[in-house]
């Protein structure tokens, strides 16, 4: 337990140091964010803010996990890390394309979906081959599990992973939002890993708790840097991979409630717009922009969404408490 807490503390310090040196490099490379024309007009002053800041907590997580390699007994955490790095690399390609062509749109939706599906399939195959994952689906609160056919489970898992990763990505639209919301989620996964005796698996979410706290020093409004798709897709990978590594993917409905709200707001907005021939259900989507249009300051949105996530993580903990009996 002490090692896990130490990892979080070290990650906070290391991420802060990496960010100190990374920020001027990103500025020198002119890796600035382009703002979408359909977004809130007051976001235009954020144009040019360095992106790919997610590299600071990604580098810290990789370095600290490698430093713990000699004392580890369970290496399943590296499956989670590799999956997340693959998603992060897809995000990096997306960010690089935006920077190179000086536009807000990077890879196409089809390109990203295909790459994400391939990465998810490889992760599931590796986890099954290593014996680190079963096809049992655990249901929180009722403390029941039932076995799915492997093919059904794989397609279900791929759908959840791709959806989860992109949902986390949608949350990165307000200064400090994605990082703040993900902190209680990482606390939950670290605590659940410890409670289930998977101490080595707890190292990655614990590292990201510290890393994200340090990252928010740079990303809190007004943001000095954005995590970019590099960071948000990496975090999405960790969120979904941890749920599957702990064999409780349905818990994402609770701990990922804000991610789900963001995604549903976009889906509902598009569907309502088409059905009503131009009317809008929300003032703007994703839903954090709706609250902005209602007059909420970015800090209020971040604190409110984070509080909702923390409350749902507590509820999720109650839901899986049967596993600890």
Structure explained in plain terms:
- The structure is a single chain.
- This protein is an all-alpha fold and 325 residues long.
- The protein contains 12 helices and 2 strands; from the N terminus they run ααααββαααααααα.
- It has a two-stranded antiparallel sheet with strand order 1-2.
- It is globular.
Q: What is the spatial order of strands in the main beta sheet? A: 1-2
Q: Would you count the extended β strands for me? A: 2
Estimate nothing, just give the exact number of structural domains.
1
Query: Unreliable segments (pLDDT under 50, ≥5 consecutive)?
Result: none
Radius of gyration computed on alpha carbons: 19 Å
The portion of residues forming beta strands comes to under 5%
Number of helices: 12
Largest sheet: 2 strands, antiparallel
- How far from one another are the termini? 19 Å
The oligomeric state is: single chain
Q: Structural class of the helices, strands and pairings?
A: mainly alpha
Shape: globular
**Could you report the average pLDDT, rounded to the nearest whole number?**
90
Give the topology string: H per helix, E per strand.
HHHHEEHHHHHHHH
Helix content: 55-70%
